[in-house]
């Protein structure tokens, strides 16, 4: 039961490729059967998320609990962002959509059911969908997300359905804290509130996690970080879920704004800042693998994590599109992806060898504009988000992303948007882009953020480490005075698809 949880954390010794999970580039110390499950799952492997896509089908509308960060008009906020209503599908429509997407996006490797309510509050639709997809598209991994209340009742079905990955949202293990997060639960034909509700929910979540771990299902735990309610306590949650065999822990910031109409939105409960989130994730890392690349995506999300192609696959469109699902074509495409992925890892390692025996206590954050494939391949003005890497003499480590408003609108830069972008990457020393115009360039420099466009279309890790070497050289020679950059804002309620 513990083998998944106990392999070492995300990084090996200095100057080697990262091992472990959440951000692994190679099998490292993972047992082969676990590596097979995570290597091309974009949520379970940070490195895979640059190359492989996932999709969700919104077949599960009902929910059996009420979280204070959720408005029932919108998707499940545990695995999807509030703000966009999904188109509900029948299992038969869902399987057609999977085949259409698998035809169009050959690097789509995972099907998740994550709402818009709770997958296990809709067990017939959820398991019927998985059954149909397993028959029609056997190379696609099946993934399920749940609040955990009904989980212990469905463990046998999950195992029988060959669902390899299950996410449970566990925000607390203390019923008194839980009473501040959950308004009610509906369990065994009865509604519970307050501490009673939270106690039942917590017991069922932890029981379900243990049962799945014992059966060899890879479990990820999602936790929503809610300042002044569970932020300090999440370190205890981290220990508890690790002890019960969780493979990966994903601590996500609360998304809360009055216009969402949630309890937290209306009472002014704010989310954490970027540095508050990072500090908590850092505190938990080492104890177990941390996921830092979650985008709190929609219940009908399609594409690479961080892009949203769901609008291309509405029900009307999927009924008209061709299905040419072909295992051999998909495998050939994925083999090419693996070649590119391996080249990126080798380039990063080669760049790191240039540090020779040098070590430095200096670390900096940098922002990167990317469309995927591990490349610096997005224009500053077109970026919907920036990926953030921490650079040290040990290497470039992905630590998160920052959603932003797209700067360039109809060919013109929007001044207001530029200031929100700068606030979003304010803790970064540099921003790497494929291209950038003169106006944003000079504003970034004024804000102390160096725009870097000399590595356009090159690998991210290799390029950022090459820049970092020259940065350290300038610090050593006295040309640059190294200074900490402070904090950055996490944009509330940003909609990737609306940008
Ligand atoms: Fe979907 Fe979740 Fe499976 Fe991924 S999402 S059911 S594990 S395939 Fe991924 Fe999206 Fe974050 Fe979820 S980025 S919200 S962690
Ligand atoms: Fe909303 Fe998901 Fe919580 Fe249900 S489990 S109330 S859908 S956030």
UniProtKB/TrEMBL annotation:
<keyword id="KW-0479">Metal-binding</keyword>
<dbReference type="InterPro" id="IPR036105">
    <property type="entry name" value="DiNase_FeMo-co_biosyn_sf"/>
</dbReference>
<comment type="function">
    <text>Involved in the biosynthesis of the iron-molybdenum cofactor (FeMo-co or M-cluster) found in the dinitrogenase enzyme of the nitrogenase complex in nitrogen-fixing microorganisms. NifB catalyzes the crucial step of radical SAM-dependent carbide insertion that occurs concomitant with the insertion of a 9th sulfur and the rearrangement/coupling of two [4Fe-4S] clusters into a [8Fe-9S-C] cluster, the precursor to the M-cluster.</text>
</comment>
<keyword id="KW-0456">Lyase</keyword>
<keyword id="KW-0004">4Fe-4S</keyword>
<dbReference type="GO" id="GO:0046872">
    <property type="term" value="F:metal ion binding"/>
</dbReference>
<dbReference type="InterPro" id="IPR034165">
    <property type="entry name" value="NifB_C"/>
</dbReference>
<dbReference type="InterPro" id="IPR007197">
    <property type="entry name" value="rSAM"/>
</dbReference>
<dbReference type="InterPro" id="IPR013785">
    <property type="entry name" value="Aldolase_TIM"/>
</dbReference>
<comment type="similarity">
    <text>Belongs to the radical SAM superfamily. NifB family.</text>
</comment>
<keyword id="KW-0408">Iron</keyword>
<dbReference type="Pfam" id="PF02579">
    <property type="entry name" value="Nitro_FeMo-Co"/>
</dbReference>
<dbReference type="InterPro" id="IPR058240">
    <property type="entry name" value="rSAM_sf"/>
</dbReference>
<protein>
    <recommendedName>
        <fullName>FeMo cofactor biosynthesis protein NifB</fullName>
    </recommendedName>
</protein>
<dbReference type="InterPro" id="IPR005980">
    <property type="entry name" value="Nase_CF_NifB"/>
</dbReference>
<keyword id="KW-0535">Nitrogen fixation</keyword>
<dbReference type="GO" id="GO:0051539">
    <property type="term" value="F:4 iron, 4 sulfur cluster binding"/>
</dbReference>
<comment type="pathway">
    <text>Cofactor biosynthesis; Fe-Mo cofactor biosynthesis.</text>
</comment>
<feature type="domain" description="Radical SAM core">
    <location>
        <begin position="49"/>
        <end position="298"/>
    </location>
</feature>
<dbReference type="GO" id="GO:0016829">
    <property type="term" value="F:lyase activity"/>
</dbReference>
<dbReference type="InterPro" id="IPR003731">
    <property type="entry name" value="Di-Nase_FeMo-co_biosynth"/>
</dbReference>
<dbReference type="Pfam" id="PF04055">
    <property type="entry name" value="Radical_SAM"/>
</dbReference>
<dbReference type="InterPro" id="IPR000385">
    <property type="entry name" value="MoaA_NifB_PqqE_Fe-S-bd_CS"/>
</dbReference>
<keyword id="KW-0411">Iron-sulfur</keyword>
<keyword id="KW-0949">S-adenosyl-L-methionine</keyword>
């Amino acid at each position: 039961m513990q083998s998944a949880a106990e392999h070492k954390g995300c990084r090996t010794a200095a100057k080697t490729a990262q091992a472990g999970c959440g951000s692994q580039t190679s099998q490292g110390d993972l047992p082969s059967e676990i590596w097979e499950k995570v290597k091309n799952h974009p949520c379970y492997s940070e490195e895979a998320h640059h190359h492989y896509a996932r999709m969700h089908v919104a077949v599960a509308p009902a929910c059996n609990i009420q979280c204070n960060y959720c408005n029932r008009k919108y998707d499940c906020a545990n695995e999807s962002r509030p703000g966009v209503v999904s188109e509900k599908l029948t299992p038969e429509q869902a399987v057609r959509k999977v085949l259409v997407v698998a035809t169009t996006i050959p690097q789509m490797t995972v099907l998740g059911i994550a709402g818009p309510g709770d997958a296990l509050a809709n067990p017939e639709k959820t398991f019927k969908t998985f059954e149909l997809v397993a028959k029609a598209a056997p190379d696609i991994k099946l993934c399920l997300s749940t609040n955990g209340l009904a989980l212990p009742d469905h463990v046998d079905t999950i195992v029988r359905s060959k669902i390899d990955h299950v996410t449970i949202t566990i925000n607390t293990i203390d019923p008194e804290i839980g009473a501040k997060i959950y308004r009610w639960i509906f369990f065994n034909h009865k509604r519970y509130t307050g501490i009673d509700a939270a106690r039942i929910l917590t017991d069922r979540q932890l029981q379900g996690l243990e049962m799945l771990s014992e059966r060899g299902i890879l479990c990820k735990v999602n936790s929503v970080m809610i300042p002044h309610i569970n932020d300090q306590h999440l370190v205890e949650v981290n220990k508890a879920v690790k002890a019960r065999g969780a493979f990966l822990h994903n601590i996500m910031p609360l998304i809360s704004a009055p216009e969402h109409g949630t309890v937290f939105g209306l009472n002014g409960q704010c989310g954490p800042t970027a540095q508050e989130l990072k500090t908590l994730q850092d505190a938990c890392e080492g104890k177990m693998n941390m996921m830092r690349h979650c985008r709190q995506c929609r219940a009908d999300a399609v594409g690479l994590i961080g892009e949203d192609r769901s609008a291309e696959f509405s029900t009307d469109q999927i009924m008209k599109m061709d299905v040419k699902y072909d295992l051999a074509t998909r495998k050939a495409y994925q083999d090419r992806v693996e070649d590119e992925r391996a080249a990126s890892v080798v380039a990063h390692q080669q760049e790191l060898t240039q540090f020779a025996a040098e070590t430095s206590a200096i670390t900096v954050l940098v922002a990167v504009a990317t469309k995927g494939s591990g490349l610096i391949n997005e224009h500053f003005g077109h970026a919907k988000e920036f990926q953030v890497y921490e650079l040290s003499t040990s290497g470039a480590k992905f630590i998160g992303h920052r959603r932003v408003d797209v700067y360039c609108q109809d060919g013109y830069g929007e001044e207001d948007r530029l200031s929100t972008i700068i606030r979003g990457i304010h803790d970064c020393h540099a921003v790497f882009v494929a291209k950038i115009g003169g106006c944003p360039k000079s504003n970034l420099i004024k804000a102390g953020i160096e725009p870097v466009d000399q590595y356009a279309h090159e690998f991210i890790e290799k390029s950022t480490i090459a820049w970092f070497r020259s940065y350290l050289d300038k610090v050593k020679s006295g040309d640059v005075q190294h200074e900490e950059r402070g904090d950055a804002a996490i944009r509330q309620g940003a909609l990737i698809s609306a940008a």
